Structure prediction request, 723 residues.
Amino acid sequence: MKRIILILILICLSSFVLAEDKPSYSYEIPEKLTAAEKADAPELRGNIYPMWGVPCMNFTYYAVYQDSKGREPEYIRINLNNKWIDLKKRSGNPKSGATYVHHYVPTSGNTNFYYFEASNGAGKARASMIDSPDNGPVIFSEKFDNNQIILLDKDGKEIWTYDTGRDWVEGVAVSKDGNYIAAATNFYVYLFSKDSNKPLWKFCKTCKLPEYVSGNFAGVAISADGEYIAASLQSQLYFFERKSNEPLWTVNIESGAIGVDMSDDVGVIAVGVANAGDKGDKIFLFDKEGNTLGEYTAEHPGYKQTGNFYQPDVTPDGSYIAVSTGCPDRRAYLFSGEGNLLFRSEMLTTDTPVHKSAISDDGSLIAYSADHNQGKEIVFLFDNKGKKLWSFSSEEDAVARAVSISGDGNYVAAGTTAGHIYLFSKNNNKPLWKFTDSAFFSQFGDIKLNSDGSLLAAAGTTKKIYLFSKNSNKPLWEYTANTWLTKLDFNGEYIVAGTGPREYFFEGNSVSSDEIKCKEILQSELFEVYYGGLTEELPRIICGDGVCEPPETEDICCEDCKAGGCENAPGLDNCGNGVCDSPGETRYNCAEDCSPQGVMNQEAMKHCGDGICEAPETKDTCCTDCGGCMGVVKKAGDEIEDGEVRQQEKNKSFFSKVINFFKKLFGAKKESQQDSVKVIIENTKTAEKISPENKPTGAKTITETTEKDGRVVENTVTVDTYE
Prediction:
């Protein structure tokens, strides 16, 4: 018998991101497969690509089916928003692994829930589900190509900012003496002095950002005096001295780390690990030399994912480590500095994670925050014996994604995804005050009390950093950043914050749930390029081929599906730009953009002009990187570097297309001669502000001289110039 979960259920996810969402419709959570049903079953794994984007984008759900006996699937399908859909095979074989896909174009900001199921005729397997289905794609209103690390003093004065571009910030930390700031992004670790936004050093493992930034778990911590930094990047924990970006040691932590913390003297370093698969999610404890003090995995027989360990919190002297877990474990934990388990709570939620923990300096009190159902407990206060002292619930809130406790343990604060901040005394669960940010899609991702609880810093999706006094819910000041703020640290004198979407994946809809009529379909980087190893052609949504087939509709593909076709159908003006622009271009009339081979060739050559000669670049195809250019590109008598024109085109990244797509889709109106643009959505009540892309300001003529077959050839082209 199926269990029906209505509005506001919280979902535990099994891949990539750890946030959970609440559907705006009823969703059926099926009974789990029995042991008999799973006997002699195939292996199945699945996901979605891209993980996030905008409405009217072409997303690909994909599953890999593998059977040890080489049996073909009796069926392989996806349950998408309560509807079963058969997947289409794209490549491979059942013995070594076959890939199946389904394409989907969302036409609103509504949440999408899915899981996969397959049978080999003997047994059944599922993927993208722990206790409940996965959620994706995430539809965002931000493009996240203008991320920042921000340093403020406690009076709200900006000390400096540092731009990380498309690289999301995953962790920030300020030393107790305030002299040094450490930060971790998806791909880099940075160390700064408080006196300059020029990094003292930076470290990277994968130093070239991909066109599509899907997010890597990372974390960072800094010693009280700023002399040592611990940071996680891509399944490794790195330990540095302040004076060098050469790690003193590196440890394999088996998977991505959601958070890192350390004691003041670096005697204890704690790391929470997520999505480790068969290895099991763990909390690791290390000493200053990289020796393992302890590690712990929650036991849940029958589950590959046993419970992600979230951001740990270590007491200054390293005596205690507080941490919490996700699905299916959903508990609060306390460990000693020697790695001993001091307490493991009961399950604190029904089917959703316990997200954050915060411990007082002496380790006597620990606060935890959780995702839950509306009106259920979202904040808990425990003592270090494992006794729950009190909990807090609100009919207005279902998720508290941020929690903090003052160093002296006298105050507890929590931030929710309904735009609320609560301040409590340790003595009871009645808030001392409540702050409400009533802006559309207002959520608080991180908050931090100072040592005596007199000041509270907070940040979230309204792009604002706030500072409060314990005496009032009226902010002392507020500071506006470029985009959503996801990470924050506060030592009482300085606030460091970082931007990105990490805390807000699947936490409500930042785009309206109203239906949108798609004027074009935005294509992301081709799935074959992302996934790798696919040699068969992967069909795209092809408007204009005369066939109306799912997921094409009248709104999505009027040429094929609407009687009489489209008025003012677009032509082929953009053929050759590396993007299969729909409607209009197809594999038949623009093979260089829309055929798999053409797109693969364009993708492979995208980095021509970056100064690195790499396959398939050659002297003939990319002389700017590989040598052999016989002339230089000139403009009005001034030399510009080889490949600059290509680089200008390269810089119009996929996410530039995203924002331009928003403008085309909804229509943009300039408010002034400044850079802000307000996008008006005709059939919604809320107008969203979105930063613009570089705008053409004119044109320039460029002449390139080359030698071909012993002759000098001069080519003249006109290109747009940009601000």
Summary: The longest helix spans residues 654-666. The two ends are 61 Å apart (CA to CA).
